[in-house]
Amino acid sequence: MRAVLLATALIAAASPVANVAADEAAWNELRGNGAVLVLRHAATVPGIGDPPGFRLDDCASQRNLSRDGRAQAAAVGRTLQDHRVRVVRVESSRWCRCLETARLAFPQLQVQLLAMLDSFFADRAAGPAQTSALRDRVRDWRGPGVLVLVSHQVNITALTGQAVAAGEAIVLRPEADSFRVVGSVRF
Q1: What's residue 6's pLDDT?
Q2: What is the pTM of this model?
Q3: Owning domain of residue 167
């Protein structure tokens, strides 16, 4: 029993160190050219998905960023600047919570809207085609600088196999036929 407790304590103690190392690898990757940052929109008002009958052209009909989410989105841009990350292009889902996240984080850049980044939470049949297009977009990015893709948890998990919290991002390195997941960063 004592050995089990000791092993558990060692694993718990090592985990934060491993996470810090993984985070540092992700930040180092972002400081170079050609990385892709796939960002889940910032924190929203409580809920899952969108209300019935929502429309993309009417933000009032969607689940939107909370006050904390707007502050979190602005912090994304400041944190990337503090880490000397050169973002040169921002692409976003057409959902208002993603677009607002992108605009608050990167007010100096024009945000491009891409349907491949739209949530397929309510239409899982659209997922494979969108994920394939997104995989191609990531694979083809070469820089200079960093590409930021603002999307939804369901899309990011389908692309990377990893779940992300609101305002969390996965750092990807494009490769010849695909990409490599480098790590994650939180804002």
Answers
A1: 33
A2: 0.87
A3: 33-186
